[in-house]
Design goal:
This protein is mainly β. The chain is built from 1 helix and 11 strands, in the order αβββββββββββ. It is 8% helix and 68% strand.
Length: 192
Amino acid sequence: MIFRVLFSFCFLVFISVSTVSADRFDIGFNDDSFQLAYETGLSEDTAYGSTFLKGRFLFNDEGGTRLGSLGLDFVGHPGNFAGLGVGAGVKLYAGKADPDVDFINLGVGFNVDYVIPHLEGLGISAGIDYAPQVFSFRDSERLLETGVRLTYAVMPKVKLFVGYQNVRLDVEDRSGRSTIDDDVRIGFVGTF
């Protein structure tokens, strides 16, 4: 039920938003999992940065994980440091892991992207999102997501990547953390 509500909300927001900047489609996969993501720009200001709405669906067959997320990111380019983008945002997570764990979390996060100017298209990005206990519902008590990607722009509108992502969940009435996603994926990002 929660997936239908989250998917419906994402769909309505994406079709109703007027496009300010280019949209991005992202797909990453390996033998056991895939992740689809869509990003659209809500506002863009050269002096103060940009605002993006991001939606994602993750399926991981190893742990039975199905995760959807919807996020709002604020990204800027600090100072005169060419190729650097720094951002912060919020992300709503909803999903199911294992046969009996349902979770809803609201996380806050930080991300950084750096496109190395002298290496013609090579870049690196990293991010962290954390949902404390006060923003965790259903069977979860906390959520922590970390990730890092190495990207290469093969064309102006297409980037290839290899990335590592880890999503950990503290489950109510269980000791320790449960890792619901811990994978390396390859894929591409298309801008249109």
